[in-house]
Specification:
286 residues; Frizzled cysteine-rich domain; 2 domains; 6-stranded mixed beta sheet; two-stranded antiparallel sheet; 9 helices; elongated; disulfide bond; Netrin_domain
């Protein structure tokens, strides 16, 4: 979902419920959304109100508090997660504050709370959905069902137990695993430290093959990137050093959930993996 600069016009078609606005009663000002808040870039507007709806009064505080949520936004755990978070941390500059509707909060919470739980964090009290207005008030609401039908529903990555990294295998065994799988994706991982001292991962994916189904390579690539973000503990295990590492992730799609079942370390001189991927083009599964 994207908020346009003409939000009031666009909102009539489904986002904004017409009623009275909400204002925190503070003197506010419009400021440019800082570059550090990349989750709120390219969302349809470039200026935000300060203080914001989280009660942050300085830009330094906004940047510090929002960085803990950027990772969640990048997982795309819900189609409206960026809109929800940015409406609170970087509210659009209008004459009045506009909250997200309670229904949007509930939808985002139900989809994204499991991702937070995967990282060992509960859904915070500061985002208690009961604090937000009902849909009858002026607020940002979820998109209509008719809009959803226009978009392809893709399988979602989920929090899961990290599969063991396979280091000893034959090309025949790898081919057997390929036959039982829906996808295999070659991934290059590296990490660096951010200015805040946190670890940030660079993920490069290349789809080696898709064995069945209607998924396109770029869709599978995007889903694997999100899987690595959601299952950050697995990504951390695969990047013990700051040196780039290459893996082959193999898995299945079950009931709309994407699961990684096998992980192979792809070393430059690994003849078995290279042989398996070469033979796969002509291989016939039993």
């Amino acid at each position: 979902m994207v908020l346009t600069a003409k939000i009031l016009v666009f909102a009539v078609s489904g986002f904004l419920r017409v009623a009275t606005g909400f204002d925190i009663g503070l003197s506010t000002k419009c400021v440019v959304i800082p570059k550090e808040m990349d989750m709120c870039h390219k969302i349809g507007y470039s200026e935000m109100r300060l203080p914001n709806l989280m009660g942050h009064t300085s830009m330094a505080e906004v940047i510090l508090k929002s960085t803990t949520w950027q990772h969640l936004a990048h997982t795309d755990c819900h189609p409206h997660v960026r809109t929800f978070l940015c409406s609170l941390f970087a509210p659009i500059c209008l004459d009045t504050f506009i909250h997200p509707c309670r229904s949007m909060c509930v939808a985002v919470r139900d989809s994204c709370a499991p991702v937070l739980a995967c990282h060992g964090h509960p859904w915070p009290d500061s985002l208690d959905c009961d604090r937000f207005p009902a849909d009858e008030d002026m607020c940002l609401a979820s998109l209509t069902k008719e809009y959803k039908y226009l978009h392809k529903v893709l399988p979602k990555p989920a929090c899961q137990t990290c599969p063991a990294v396979e280091e000893f295998f034959t090309h025949k065994r790898v081919l057997e695993v390929f036959c039982d799988s829906n996808f295999a994706v070659k991934v290059k991982l590296s990490k660096k430290r951010t200015v805040f001292g946190d670890q940030e991962y660079n993920i490069e994916c290349q789809v080696e093959f898709i064995t069945q189904g209607s998924l396109l390579p770029y869709e599978t690539q995007s889903m694997i990137q999100k899987w690595l973000l959601i299952n950050e503990n697995c990504t951390q295990r695969m990047t013990p050093t700051y040196r780039p590492m290459v893996y082959l992730l193999v898995g299945n799609i079950e009931e709309g959930i994407i699961l990684v079942n096998q992980v192979y370390r792809w070393q430059r001189r690994d003849s078995q993996l290279n042989l398996a991927t070469q033979k796969w083009r002509y291989h016939k599964c039993l």
